[in-house]
Design brief:
- The chain is an all-alpha fold.
- 75% of the residues lie in helices and 0% in strands.
- It contains 18 helices and no strands.
- Helix 5 packs antiparallel against helix 6 and helix 8 packs parallel to helix 10.
- The longest helix is centred in the middle third of the chain and has 21 residues.
Length: 320
Amino acid sequence: MNRTLAIIIAMLLLAAGASHAEAPAESLLSAGRVDLAIVNLQNRIRQSPNDSEAYHLLSRAYFSLRRWDDSINAARKAVAIAPNNSDYHLWLGRAIGEKAESSSWFTAISLAKKVRAEFERAVQLNSSNVNAQSDLTEFYLEAPSFLGGGKDKARSQARRIAAFNPAEAHWIEARIAEKDDNWKVAENEYRAAIQASGNQANYWLSLASFYRRRNRLNDMEDAVYRASNGVIKKSDVWVDAAEVLYKGGRNFPAAIGYLRKYLASNSTVEDAPAFQAHYLLGTILEKEGDKQAAAEEYRAALSMAHEFSAAQDALARVNR
C-alpha cells in the first residue's frame, strides 16, 4: 500500500469515532464503507457486549472482506446470544461454507456438515426466509449424498417455496434441471421464473448466467440487456449484470457503464459492496488496457476497505 493511501485510511479511521460515531452500521455496510462499519460495530460491542445484532453485522462486514474466520467467530457470538434468529444461523452457515471452499478436502467435509446444519436450522426457525430456503437448496444441489445433499431434497424445497414465491420455485427447478443436463427444461424454468416474477431483472440475469455456462454468449448478452430494462427491485442488479458480461468476455463498455451507474447512485446495497464494485470496475478497465483508471478504482476500493487483499494485489500489479 502506498504512503498516501495509508494516510488517507488512517484519517478515515480516526474520523470514525467522531463524525461517523452515530452513523448506523447498516448504512455504512450499504454504502460499502466496511472499515468505518467495523469500527462502529466494535465500539458498539464494547458498550453492549450482549448486542447480538452488532455481532451479526460485524460478521457480515468481515464476510464482505473474505475474512472467513473472523466472520465465523462473530456469527457464532450472535447465535449464542440469540439462538432463535433465522438470519443469524443463515449467515453463520454462509461464512462456514466460504471457509470450506478454501480448506483442504478433509476439513471441508467437516465444515460442510456444519453448513447444512445452520441452513436447516435457519429454515426451521423461519420457513418464510427465502434467502435461507435458497441457500439450503443450493447446498442440497451441490453436496454429495453422504453430506446430506440430494436433488429430491431440493425439489422438496421448491414445493415449499412455491406457495409464497413461485418465481423462486421455478428458479430452483431450473437449477435441478441444469444439474440433470436437461438444458431445455432448465431454460424453460428460468423463463418461467421471469414470468412469475413479473419480469424482474434478477431472474433475467439468472437466465443470462445459464446462457454463459452453456457458451450461448449472444443469448447471454440479450438476456443482460433485457435485465437492464426489466423490473429492478434492488440496485445490485447493475453489478450482477456487469459481472455476467465480464465473466462471459463480452461488451466490456456496457459492463463499465453499469458499474459506474451503480457507484454514482445513492442506492448502493450491502449485497454488492461499493468497494467490491470499484474493484470489479478496476479489473475490467485493466482488461481494457486503461491501467491508470484501473488504479484509481483499486484505490477507491481500498479507501473503503483497506484490508481487501484482492484490491491490494491488483493495485500493486498495475503500479509495477
